[in-house]
């Protein structure tokens, strides 16, 4: 016989906390949510790193596959950019391959750090191109046809900046977490 008294549930004269009762509930979604909340509370840095990793994985797979699925349009837009047509053709092959490969790097733990570094490098290159376009280096802003999202060139520069900051945060967190794990391992081996 169960009887509620305060925050405990009395079950055959044994007091069971509500938290224990929640864990015993059959709701799969509730158990997963509680586990996730507990993980975030215990490991906030790892959670932020995983969130950044997942966001960059989705970003690169999206932009790379969009270029592949609309390749004819993408190639034409690259040829209309303010550099030689041969570079546009080369970039029309190279960019989707690099972007999809970057997405794959974020899938595996061993290549994630390399993915952050390459993303950082690519964002700096893309941002440099956007800055040149905004400064009217070519006598006008190139067509908006290569922008992945329907935003202005200035907004694109801000997005690139946010991605760059995300990469730097990801690299710093990855380093901090690796050092922490190495210290814990050394302490276990030392004792």
SSE blueprint and pairings:
Elements (H helix, E strand, L loop, with lengths): L1 E4 L2 E4 L2 E4 H6 L4 H15 L1 H26 L1 H9 L5 H21 L3 H26 L18 H38 L1
Antiparallel strand pairs: 1-2, 2-3
Helix pairs in contact: 2-3, 3-5, 3-7, 4-5, 5-6, 6-7
Compact overview of the structure:
Strands 1-2-3 form a 3-stranded antiparallel β-sheet.
Structure write-up:
- The chain is mainly α.
- Helix content is 74%, strand content 6%.
- A three-stranded antiparallel sheet has the order 1-2-3.
- A hairpin with a 2-residue loop joins strand 2 and strand 3 (14-17).
- Helix 2 (28-42) packs across helix 3 (44-69), helix 3 (44-69) packs across helix 7 and helix 5 packs antiparallel against helix 6.
- It is elongated.
Instruction: Please give the count of helices.
Output: 7
Q: What's the overall average pLDDT, rounded?
A: 84
User: Count of DSSP E strands?
Assistant: 3
Strand order of the largest sheet: 1-2-3
Secondary-structure-based class equals mainly alpha
Instruction: Report the radius of gyration as a whole number of Å.
Output: 25 Å
| SSE string, helices as H and strands as E | EEEHHHHHHH
- Strand content range: 5-15%
């Amino acid at each position: 016989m169960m009887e509620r008294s305060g925050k405990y549930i009395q079950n055959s004269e044994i007091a069971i906390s509500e938290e224990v009762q929640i864990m015993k509930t059959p709701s799969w979604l509730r158990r997963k949510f509680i586990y996730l909340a507990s993980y975030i509370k215990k490991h906030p840095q790892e959670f932020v790193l995983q969130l950044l990793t997942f966001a960059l994985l989705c970003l690169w797979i999206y932009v790379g596959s969009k270029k592949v699925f609309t390749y004819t349009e993408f190639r034409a837009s690259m040829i209309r950019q303010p550099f030689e047509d041969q570079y546009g053709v080369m970039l029309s092959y190279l960019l989707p391959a690099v972007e999809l490969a970057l997405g794959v790097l974020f899938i595996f733990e061993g290549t994630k750090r390399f993915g952050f570094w390459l993303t950082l490098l690519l964002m700096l290159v893309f941002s440099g191109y956007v800055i040149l376009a905004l400064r009217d280096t070519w006598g006008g802003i190139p067509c908006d046809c290569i922008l992945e999202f329907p935003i202005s060139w200035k907004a694109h520069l801000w997005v690139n900046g946010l991605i760059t900051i995300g990469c730097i945060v990801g690299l710093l967190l990855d380093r901090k977490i690796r050092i922490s794990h190495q210290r814990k391992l050394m302490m276990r081996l030392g004792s």
